[in-house]
Amino acid sequence: MSTDPALRTRSGRSRRRRRAFGIGFAAVIAVLGVVALAGAAVSSVQGPRVTAVSVDPQAAVEAGGARVILTTSQSLQKVETSQVTVTPAASFTVQTSERDIGVRFSNALYDDTQYTVTVHGVVGIGGGPVTTLSESFHTPALSVFMLKRGSGTDTIFRTGLDGAQAVPVFENPHIEDFRATSQHLVMSVRTADDKPELIVTDLDGANARTLPLPGAGDIRDLGVLPREVVNG
After folding, report:
1. How far apart are CA 92 and CA 66, in angstroms?
2. Whether the predicted pLDDT of 4 surpasses 50
3. For residue 169, what are the contacts with CB-CB under 8 A and spacing of at least 6?
4. CA 124, CA 154: separation in Å to the nearest integer?
5. 145, 158 contact by CB (below 8 A)
6. Which residues pair with 175 in a beta bridge?
7. Which of 57, 59, 60, 185 has a CA that sits 20 to 30 A from residue 114's CA?
8. Mean pLDDT value across residues 42-54
9. Residue 59 dihedral angles phi and psi, to the nearest 5°
């Protein structure tokens, strides 16, 4: 055993620091434990609640099969179709997966419309309070494209379904045909020397580029898939 007073003092200080650290660390663990228990208790008292919503309104008006997914704070008991209402009325199916409730629309939805999905009688997998979940989304207004032939210039306009507020998006001296995809316009045109050409742009007419053709000839029966993405 050392009799050096300086060594005894340093040893005592080291023990006190280790003891203080241990007490502080235990206090932090205790606080975290209390917070976790409190969070679990609050969740148990409140029942499931929505923590995230996933929906693509644009896809919902373009075709059937679009989904709204409600992610909740707890794993859920199975939700039946009879527990779900959609306003305005729409045909749908329901799937439950852990914390997610998926509502898939059978048909395309109306454009420019506020939809509300309400799920009644939602219960966590371990039981507890019954809650009602409700979320809303707004579908965008659909637009259509029209070709207007003119003297020396043909123009493609974008307009609403009512035909109002037409906006020109693409012009060319000779547009033979065109098609619109979900992201692009594709135009079959004739060049100044009367050769066929295929041009693709964004829906607003921007970023025009020419697509290569396989060889000489004419372009007939232009067609695209409904959600095709065209790359130049």
Report:
1. 10
2. yes
3. 145, 156, 157, 158, 185, 201, 203, 204, 205
4. 60
5. yes
6. 189
7. 185
8. 81
9. -65, -30
Task: Please tell me the distance from the alpha carbon of residue 103 to that of residue 106, in angstroms, as a whole number.
Answer: 10
Query: What does the chain come to in residues?
Result: 232
Phi, psi of 31 (to 5 degrees): -65, -45
Report the relative pairing of strands 184-190 and 196-202 from DSSP bridges. antiparallel
**Predicted confidence (pLDDT) per residue in 51-102, tens digit:** 999 999 989 998 899 999 999 999 999 999 999 999 999 999 999 999 999 9
In order of 107, 170, 179, 218, 220, the CA distances from 192 in angstroms are: 44, 17, 22, 15, 19
pLDDT digits 0-9 by tens, 176-208: 999 888 788 999 999 888 888 999 999 899 999
- pTM of this prediction? 0.61
* Cα 229 to Cα 40, 55, 102, 185, distances in angstroms: 46, 21, 26, 10
**Residue that is written with structure tokens 């012009």 in the block:** 171
For the chain, the average pLDDT equals: 82
CA 146 to CA 159: how far, in whole Å? 8
pLDDT score of 105 more than 90: yes
Backbone angles phi, psi at 188, to 5 degrees: -100, 120
